[in-house]
Design a protein that fits this description.
The protein has 7 helices and 7 strands; from the N terminus they run E-H-E-H-E-E-H-H-E-H-E-H-E-H. It is globular. Strand 1, helix 1 and strand 2 form a beta-alpha-beta unit. The two termini are 15 Å apart. Helices cover 40% and strands 18% of the residues. The protein is an alpha/beta fold.
Length: 200
């Protein structure tokens, strides 16, 4: 069974909501979604100690990346960039890079911002860069997804997104939900196809 890692960091819940919609899309494609998060970091850039939360997905390890056939990764925007907690996790994957473990695996990205023009596309780009260095293949959202042309909130061809509002209270819209599902579905479908080609 083809498995896709849905990896995210969420502080107030909006990115976690998008992750659930991405996972739904992965399952629609016939793949299995492995949902994981990362722990917050301190200002000293050390992982925070303490147990994994009793609710929610487990913390990710590099092994989750190694064992899955694709990745959809999400982060809230921090000044037009991914959150430090996710960057910290990615910085620990150099062993996968040196071994070429993730080469030719598909990936997609998603984000949530406080405002519509709060750096959604630059955040998606910042998440994509280390994955491109890993040799992964970027999967965006094509304009054949009709909600990409009709959304008045989040959603870009670079990946799924959500505009949560300054206080984070805006719910994920129907269009944002559909775009997130379409992204997960596309990554899942392509991973299944690529895995089938590898086994042939």
């Amino acid at each position: 069974m083809t498995e896709i890692l849905v990896l995210y960091y969420s502080r107030h819940g909006a990115t976690a909501t998008l992750a659930r919609h991405v996972a739904t899309g992965v399952e629609k494609a016939g793949a299995t979604a492995r949902v994981r998060t990362v722990p917050p970091v301190t200002t000293a850039v050390e992982p925070m100690t303490g147990p994994v939360p009793e609710q929610g997905p487990p913390y990710a390890t590099a092994r989750d990346l190694e064992e899955t056939q694709g990745l959809v990764m999400g982060s809230p925007t921090r000044f037009g960039n991914m959150a430090a907690a996710l960057k910290y996790f990615l910085d620990g994957t150099s062993g996968l890079w040196s071994g070429g473990v993730l080469v030719d695996r598909p990936f997609g990205v998603f984000t949530s911002t406080g405002s519509l023009h709060g750096g959604q596309e630059t955040t998606l780009l910042s998440m994509a860069l280390p994955l491109i260095h890993q040799g992964m293949v970027w999967v965006g959202v094509p304009y054949t997804v009709p909600e990409l042309s009709t959304t008045n909130s989040g959603g870009t061809p670079y990946g799924a997104s959500h505009a949560a509002g300054p206080d984070g209270s805006r719910a994920v819209t129907r269009e944002e939900q559909r775009i997130a599902e379409a992204l997960g579905e596309r990554v899942g479908r392509l991973a299944i196809r690529m895995e089938s080609d590898r086994r042939a």
